[in-house]
Structures are given as C-alpha cells and as structure tokens.
Amino acid sequence: MPQNHNDHTVSFKWDKEEPDQVYNILKAVYEALEEKGYNPLNQLVGYMISGEPAYITSHKQARNLIGKIDRDEIMEALLKKYLE
Prior knowledge:
Elements: H1 19-35, H2 40-50, H3 62-66, H4 71-83
C-alpha cells in the first residue's frame, strides 16, 4: 500500500529574530499607530491577516520596522506569550 505523506507531521523551523527584538518592534509600531490616531490592535490584526504593509503607518519608521520581522515570528511570539 502506498504511503500517504499526509500521515506525517512536518517540523517547521526557520532562523528568527530574538524574542526581545520582536517585542520591541511590536511596541514601537503600536505606539506609532496610537500616536497617529489609529486603533493599533485593529491595524495590527489587519496586517497579520493580510500581510499588507499599508495597515501600518510610516510614522516613526513603523512600516519599515515591522517589515524586518516575518509575520510567522510575530505569531509565534504572541502565542508563546499568551500560552505562558
């Protein structure tokens, strides 16, 4: 019988930023969004779902900062913190 490749769990790993760097970037982006009058949580959720950088203001280089980390890294950091 042929082996079904869907029966195996694939391990997912990648080189990632330090958790403190992810936190510092998210904090800076959050503050920049807040300063510009946006709802930071709504904007960050929009970015996380779509990957569209237009959800993030360019104020204080926030858009450039968030572009330095993968959304996977952000999700991992958030889940890790939430589940601790």
